[in-house]
Structures are given as structure tokens and as C-alpha cells.
Design a protein that fits this description.
- With 245 residues, the protein is of the alpha+beta class.
- The protein folds into 2 domains: 93 residues; 107 residues, no CATH class.
- 32% of the residues lie in helices and 35% in strands.
- β4 and β5 form a beta hairpin.
- α6 crosses α7.
Amino acid sequence: MTNSNLIPICYIDGEKGIHLSAFADILVMEEIQRKTYLRAIRFGGYPEMVQAMSDAIYGGGSIEVELPQGDVSTLADAKRFQRQISHDGQYAIATLLATDVESSAKSKDKASKSDDSNPTEDEANSDDVPDAKDAQVTPPRNSCIFCPKGDRDHLFHEIDRICAVPFIPEFQDYLLDELEKRAFLKPLIVHSSMEHLDAWSLTCHSGDSNIIAVIEDGLKGGHIAIPGIVTNPQALRMYLVSPAT
């Protein structure tokens, strides 16, 4: 990294007296209900500074970012990042990528409810048990996808790789447009000093049920077609739920 065109970032914790600064060359954020959340970042510098900033972001808090159009604050969710630090002599580079925030939050909320109170004797002896179908339902997972700027072929390939639902190339235009229309595929805010790239957030429900529903709607509406089985509903269902090959 060189200092030209890099993005100044700053972490401040007034209560603990922490004030850290660094320069990033890639910054990815997501706006949710008028708040901006950090989804990915890469920055470099002296190893001690990089480690300290990495620990601060991982621990959660607000990061101040200096952009040409004005300063912004972005929130880092505590302990919701995968991080990697590489070293090259007296220089280090840290990369942090947000994990599935929604699923982690729901799991934490479920655990909190379990710890809030002990069951009464009547509750402990109750014959009511969770429905087997409900027990198999998992929270939605959110995947962060990176691709060259404007490269829809690469974006489609990455979605195909993430999902277990089998795709064919003819699905591409309909699937990308419809996923974005239904807010299952959302563009992220990208600032990069060197690389021209796009970033997307893909939400997949349990068993990729939302992706399956989008494809089923497209097939039923005639927007896309699978030669040989489009007129056979049972064969269509078997195709959609079968593992991708």
C-alpha cells in the first residue's frame, strides 16, 4: 500500500482512552435503516498498529472514515468478523470480513432467552415439544460476494457456487434481477483506492427456500424454462431440491 488515495480511518474509545488511526485501501459498508455497518476492510502499516486496529474493530464500535465527499461513521459489530493478518518484514496487512450477522444475532438471542429463567415444574413436565419441522429450520445466512465491477457473469457464478440449488446459464438475467428486486441480493457500498470491484450481500433462507421460490416463480411465469421438465411439476420440484452437480 502507498499513502496516495488511501482511505483514512480512525477508531476512538473515549472511556478507555484509545485513539487509533490507519489507512485502508478497501472499505465495504452496508446501509441499514439509515445506519452504516462495516462489512469488509483491508488496511496496512506497522505490525503493532495493524494488530491494535484489528483488535479494536473486532471488538466492535464506531469507525470514523474520511472520504472525499465527507466523513462518515460506520459501525463494526462486535466479534462478527473473520480476520487475517499477513506480514512482510516491518509491514503488515489486515483483512476483516463480516460473518453472518443476522444468524449470529438470532442464535445469541435464543441463548439469552434460554438463560433468562429456569423452567417451572409444569413446564419441565409438559408434553409440548418443538415441532420436528421447526427444529430443522435455521436462520438465514448472509454471504458477502466480491466481483469485478459490473461483471454480472462473475456475480451469477458466485451465487451458483454458494447455493445448493442447481442453476443453468439461462437463469442469469432473470435470477439476478429478481433477487435484487426482492432484496435477497443487495449492493454494498464500496470504496477502493486501487481495485475496481463490486460487493453484494446475498441472503439465503433455510434450505435456500427463497432462491427456490424465485426460480419456481420464474418457471411458472414463463420468464425462464428448463427443457424437458418445465411442464412436469413433480420433476421440477425434484430438480430444484436435488444437490447441484
